[in-house]
Amino acid sequence: MDNRPIAKSGLIPAKAFEYERDHLIELPPHLPAPYLVHKRSTDQYGYVSFDGNFYWVPGTKRDEVRVFQYSDLLKIYLRREFLIEYQLPVDGMKNKRFSPEGLPKPLYEPKNRKKPTMEEEKRLRAMAEVVGAYLDFALKPKGVQRHRFVRELFALARKMTPTLFIKTIERALKYRISRIEIIQRIALLYLNQRAETLPQVEVDENFREREAYMEGRLTEEPDFSPYDKLLEEGNG
Question: Is 220 inside a domain boundary?
Answer without folding.
Answer: no
